[in-house]
Input
Amino acid sequence: MVNNLKSATAVQLFHWELAHPIIVSSSPLSAHKQAINNLFSVGAAAVVTKTITPYPDARSGGCLRHGELFFNRDGYSNRSVSKWEEDLEALRGQKVIANIFAETPDELSILARQVVARGVEIIELGLSCPTAGKDPVCCYPSQLSEFCQAVRKAVDVPILVKLLLQTSAERNREMASMVKNAKCEGISLSDTLPAIILKANGSMALGGPGGLSGAALKPLVLKGLYDVADLDLVVLGIGGIKEAQDVVDYIRMGATAVQICTTLMVDGIQKLGSLVQNLTALVGQTQINLEM
Output
């Protein structure tokens, strides 16, 4: 396994040269144009939009910190596609990845064309969100294939598919293979993991099942990256990234770049600048060998 973080921290993501491998993932932090510009101002290499959908989600299920973990029932973007089209047009030329979701392959294909027409150069299919309390599309291989093939036929930009980590290596490989066979170029692994947090009185925190993120996810996602390492896909690693060493560990396990969110939600977006500085220092001082 040979990876692309060497004495400098620049990486190649499809046709983009990124100054470093740290991307901000789809989240409340990237909910509109100004928020995305704020992330670029503190050093984000690229930003993934909050999930754009034809049916805006007014539900805000909330977020809470639970020790070293972060639990949320947040939904998709509550802004219309037309509002997002305005934002994407204003962001044209910047390294913005559009995360998109729709209930049917045809609807998702239409949405993909709409965002590409506004200058989006890379798409991420949001087929993995667990916060609605049901299994997402990526858990059903035949459906996953249909969605991926439909969007692949609709647009000619690189496509990432966000997946939900499975404990089974066979299931992880099955999902990633479906993405590859549909001629989509990469995966983002993993979305938050389905979970329930109980309050002291025994009731469910935030009112029901949601998505869990934070430090506990990192070793699980590393195993998922290991499961799919030979499939020749671009991979973005997501989960439990808090320090520069976490970024290096993901790159060593085959990730081209990483996506972060929870640590910025907890510590503020200004942490991104120090994380980039620490990564540069770590790679430069130790002359890390990333060949496995």
